[in-house]
């Protein structure tokens, strides 16, 4: 399952980059941080976009759909690690459903023609 492990790592890194980039704007506007937070945020968002181009999917839309499931899981982990908001049972159930959908998109025998 190298594709599964590689894809999981790729999408997890992309999610961390996207969340960090968006969090920089959140920190500036909602937490009163300096606008200088937007500089590393912009770099993180650029890294996010570049990382998604390495997706094993042949189509951008499918890559983004697959990424969405991973993004949800990483977002909940970010909230727990960075903001101290532990996910509840509903969060975990929703994340599991999304991750199952992402795995289905990745592993399904899509028509490759």
From TrEMBL:
Q: Where in the cell is it found?
A: Cell membrane
Write the record's keywords in alphabetical order, separated by commas.
Cell membrane, Membrane, Transmembrane, Transmembrane helix
Question: Per UniProt, what is the membrane topology?
Answer: Multi-pass membrane protein
Q: What's one Pfam family here? A: UPF0060
Where does the chain cross the membrane? 34-52, 64-81, 93-109
User: Family assignment?
Assistant: Belongs to the UPF0060 family.
Which NCBIfam families does the record match to this protein? PRK02237.1
Its name, as the record gives it, is YnfA family protein
* Natural source organism: Bombella dulcis
